[in-house]
Amino acid sequence: MTNRQLWRKIEEFKLDFDSIDFNFSERLARDNNWNVEYSLRVIEEYKKFIYLCCISNQPITPSDAVDQAWHLHLTYTKSYWKDFCESTLEKEIHHSPTKGGESEREKFSDCYNLTFERYENEFGQKPPSDIWLDKTKRFKDVNFRRINVNNYWLVKKPSKALGTSLKFFGIIILIPYLFMNAKDNDAPIPVIIFIIIVFILIFMKGKRGGGSGCSYDCSYDSSCGSDGCSGCGGCSD
Question: How would you write 152-188 as a 3-class SS string?
Answer without folding.
Answer: CCCCCCCCHHHHHHHHHHHHHHHHHHHHHCCCCCCCC
